[in-house]
Amino acid sequence: MFDEVVTVFPFNSNYDRNELLKQDSKRKRKTDDGLWNTPFSVKLGGIVVQSIIPLTKPDNSIAVLYRDINSAYSMRYIELKDRTGRITTQLSEFEQIPTLIIPMELGGHLALDSNVYYFPPPELKIAISATLSNSDILIRERMNYLMKPTGVDGESFVSFIVLDSRRTLLATTSGNLYMLFLEIEVSGLLLVVTSLKLIKLGRITNGPPNGLHYISGNKFFASCQTCNSVVFSISSDRDPYVYIESTIEGTGSPIIDMFADHAEWTDGDGVIYTCQGGVHGSEIRKYAGFSDTFEPLEERHLGIEVLSSRVIGQHIVIKGRQEEQIVLDCESLTESSIGIPSEFIDYYQDENKRNWCITKDTITMNESSIQYGPYKFGKIFPNSVIVAITEGNRLLILGEGYRLINLPIGIDAVSSVDSSMISPTDFIVLLSGSKSIELWRISDNVKEDSIFENTFVKTNLRVELIFEDKFTETVFSSAVVAHEDGTISIILSEYRKVNHIHLTMKRSKPDVARHLITESSNNPYTIVKHGDEVIMFNLDDIVALKRNIISKQYYVVYRKMEGIVDAKFVRKDIILVCSSNAIQLFKYNNQPSLGSLAYKSIEFKEMCFKCIQAPEAGYFIVLARDLNGSNSIVVVDCLKMEILSKYETELPIKDICWMTSHDSIGRSTPYWFTVLFNSSKPLGIFKIEGNTIELVQEVSITGYNSDELYFDSINLVEYTSSVPWELKFVLYGQICMVIQLNEMNPQHMTWQARCQSVYRTSTTYAVSTVLYEPGWLNREERDMYVGDLVNGVDKCNVADTTISPIVFEPKHQYLSSMAFNSLSRRKYLISGDSLGNIAVTATLNEEVPVCKFNLGDQINAIRVIYDEFDKEFSRVVVIGTVSGALYLLSEIVLDDHEHLRINIKDIKKELIESGSYINQWKVLGKDPEELDEQLVPFDVRLVNKFLGKLTCLENNPHEEQSLDEFDSKHRMSCINKDVLQRINHLYNLYPDS
Q1: How confident is the model at residue 930, as a pLDDT?
Q2: In DSSP terms, which residues pair with 620 in a beta bridge?
């Protein structure tokens, strides 16, 4: 449709639609016998078409929502016949603008704004049943339509799915899902509405127009470009609700602004907060990373072919394929001895040195029988709980002070048993068969009412079957973990994949969510667990499974190892790995980093365009703007990711800045900040007290005419510790100047422009960034760096208003963001542009280029990381792009001996030649320019790729010739393989992960 013209594409009913699915069919331009007949256009007069829907009745008709020359909104029906259009029905004007129109199966259509309107087919007269006579449904008899208020405030309906003649799903811009029930009876020419109600089902995701889609059965898809897309179903309960089955992360959401949490990074962890999305909806995301490393410790080669291993107390028992047995000390791997039976199903020594044993005939404690068998399967857990399966296929659970016998189970052949503690008196047991599982809950608190069906009470125990499932693929290994948040994770290793079943306990039944953790090769994984720590192994690698506390999902971290036979936890932080003829201990480290990212988010129907942290306060502030131009200031709790307070204003907000420094703000109560408005009073002074935002005063600035100028950014540049409220700020826009707050009396604030600092900028296209070194106003040079969209970066001396450009060769292509890290050894200025170019410039004495590269996407945000610079990786900045990607730029700190033997230049050259695009500088209208290799940084992704390829070649005996060629091509990289492995592991990017 093009304003007042509608183009109709008639479908060719004789066309074989299967032709579209043939891969060998050639794409040809056809004038006839194609999918579509010749299109035709219908002129509608001087109107602007807003939306079109097809109608079931009248036949061959469409309904058109339009705006006329008087900006009034109305609808008309148009009959399409003989390649022409004819207006058959004209409806009255709407008082509000409808956001959604929906065709009805019985004819006519619905329209929605703050009301629901039903327009029946023109030949039918509408009425309501007697049961609705006292409702809020109104009949406009003269215009023949029905109207009912939706009761939905502040939301617009933008998407729908017609389920049947009674039910229609409706989605709003803010992500809520509703069910519209409309029941109709037709008698002759009378259409009677017997029921009309709107029920809120729950939240799905911020929905764009036409974002709802039906999949099949009870499965639906809600798409979103700026947030997460979801697959959901609707419960069949009496009070239906939305159940989110799967989430497709909106990792492509543009990053608008972000900051790295100061406290988190200085503690060595990694937490980043971002504003992501667009004008139709956005998110505030908290990214948290988790690093899992296997640090090699002791290793010992054995003279036997290893079959299996067990950890018993402080001993490791290795069993060989020829029935040999070696006992070693857990820490030193020296030979030791322990008295254990020659044949047993399971053996465990607890912290009190008591020896528990399951054999085929009996269960013993310190060699004394406590329960006779016979048993075919069993396992002893660290809490001294014994789970055994009798030959009669019954479940036996033993523990200190209780025993339960003779509980029937539904699994014919139990292949795996696992257990996890919920509380000291409450635990769960997972039984796995070849293609089914059962999850039992055991509690000795019999006073509690059972919340599950299938309850058995024996002696002083309550036992409940809380979950069971069947599968088409064989389950090779399994584990269960009860988490502190009350949820339960079941991890299942199947033939080619590892799945995660996440259970949220409810009063009636657990809510179930399923996630694919990883796919495997032909070698299925064996799962090993210690407490809540989970690892897996097969012949090719050992894998750490880590659950992110934010997303509740597991992710994997691989370490390639050859010929793994077995693996066990010696303790929570020590892992034993057995190969065919050797064993090795690894330090298992679980420290946060940016290697693996997951996030928690808050969705907004507005666009969040700015976020700043309140140091030491536990919250941050977000600026948001909706499509109508209204602005909000939002306070968000950092830990819980919850909104604490919100302040709304119609004034256009440009920027926000704290009114005290990082050093003093932790001692300042309440917290004060200033907001930059685009108005005659450009500064708004706010305070936060008791998690509530309060406007203190709107202030003008003396010394210049604020009506004629506007500003884009404000930055705090200096305060005097002896007079803490004599604050100095830099304003940047049409001019750049320093302003000073001379008095902090809330009843009388005085802001003064320092005239000697005022100078006009080179262009009105400003990057809202002014960078400086702390204390610069107290020095003679008083230099700061100002970013300009067109002209790049200028170095400005405020004292004498001189400007000197920083020359970039090649030049930036529309500067988009920059940051200044004054904590590093060399004081780095990092700048990025609209084509993804990044330049790092050292500024200690003079501006010297350090490195340049390209990330392929527009750079939207560069933010400093306040990291300690005494590590092997000194993090400098985090970079966010328009495609939602996050990059970490770090400074590599090499040991002294590595400086002598490593040739950085040759290694970088080898890695770049293997396939890299970061060594280019993109220029508008020209081919990318190749950068000097010495200026190109280490790309850890290439290190990861190199190590992965090398590992594959080394582990494949048929690739000897290819390995020689690879070594020859990457000579320096192979020589310094250990250094590259350390770099790779520190970044938590393992080969093939």
Answers
A1: 80
A2: 613, 636
CB burial readout 608-641, b (16+ within 10 A) else e? bbbbbbbbebebbbbbbbbeeeebbbbbbebeeb
Collapsed DSSP state (helix, strand, coil) of residue 896? helix
In a domain, 515, yes or no: yes
Express each pLDDT in 857-875 by its tens digit. Answer: 999 999 988 765 445 567 7
Tokens of 225: 């470009």
Per the CB < 8 A criterion, the answer to whether 268 and 262 are in contact is no
Would you say 161 and 174 are in contact if contact means Cβ atoms under 8 Å apart?
Answer: no
- CATH number for the domain that contains residue 535: 2.130.10.10
E-assigned strands of 381-415?
386-390, 394-399, 402-408
Give the pLDDT of residue 10. 80
DSSP 928: P
DSSP 162-219: E-SSSEEEEEETTSEEEEEEEEEEEETTEEEEEEEEEEEEEE--PPPTT-EEEEETTE
* Cβ atoms of 121 and 187 closer than 8 Å: no
**Nearest Cα residue to 464 out of 412, 422, 514, 415:** 422
Helices (H) and strands (E) in the chain, counts: 8, 78
To the nearest whole number, what is the mean pLDDT of the chain?
79
Last residue of a domain, one of 536, 570, 591: 591
What's the half-sphere exposure (Cβ side, CA atoms, 13 Å) at 709? 22
Please report, in angstroms and rounded to a whole number, the separation of the first and last CA atoms in the chain. Answer: 48
Q: pLDDT-derived band of residue 458, with 50, 70 and 90 as boundaries?
A: very low
Task: Write out the two tokens for 235.
Answer: 């419960």
- Residue with tokens 């002014």, as numbered in its chain: 770
Strands (E), 650-733: 653-658, 671-677, 683-689, 692-699, 711-719, 727-733
Question: Each residue of 543-564: b (16+ CB within 10 Å) or e?
Answer: bbbbbbebbbbbbbbbbbbeeb
Q: End of a domain among 567, 591, 615? A: 591
- 352-383 as b/e: b if 16+ CB within 10 A: eeebbbbbeeebbbeeeeebebebebbbbbee
DSSP calls for 335-373: B------SS-SEEEE-TT--EEEE-SSEEEETTEEEEE-
Q: Is residue 481 part of a domain?
A: yes
Nearest CA to 632 among 554, 686, 681, 564?
686
Nearest to 835 by CA among 812, 818, 808, 807: 812
Take residue 79 and report the two structure tokens written for it: 């009959």
Q: Are 170 and 155 in contact (CB under 8 A)?
A: no
Residue 578 in any domain: the answer is yes
Residue type, 237: D
At 916, is the pLDDT very low, low, confident or very high (cuts 50, 70, 90)? low
Instruction: Work out how many domains the chain is built from and give that number.
Output: 2
Q: What are the tens digits of pLDDT across the range 803-855? A: 677 777 788 888 899 988 876 566 888 999 999 999 998 887 778 888 899 99
pLDDT band at 290 (very low <50, low <70, confident <90, very high): very low
Residue 883's alpha-carbon distances to 208, 277, 305, 862, in angstroms, are: 18, 10, 51, 14
With a threshold of 0.90, does the pTM exceed it?
no
Average pLDDT, integer, range 791-808: 71
Cite the beta strand spans of 883-989 per DSSP E.
Answer: 886-892, 920-921, 929-930
What's the token pair of residue 396? 């036996």
The residues pairing with 633 across neighbouring beta strands, listed in sequence order, are: 623, 647
Count other Cβ atoms within 10 Å, centred on residue 531.
12
**Domain that residue 346 falls in:** 292-591
pLDDT higher than threshold 50 for residue 969: yes
* Backbone torsion region of residue 782, taken as left when φ is above 0, otherwise alpha when ψ lies between -120 and 50, otherwise beta: left
Judge whether 571 lies within some domain.
yes
Bridging pattern class, strands 355-358 and 362-365: antiparallel
* DSSP output for 421-452: EEETTEEEEEEE-SSEEEEEEEES-TTSPP-S
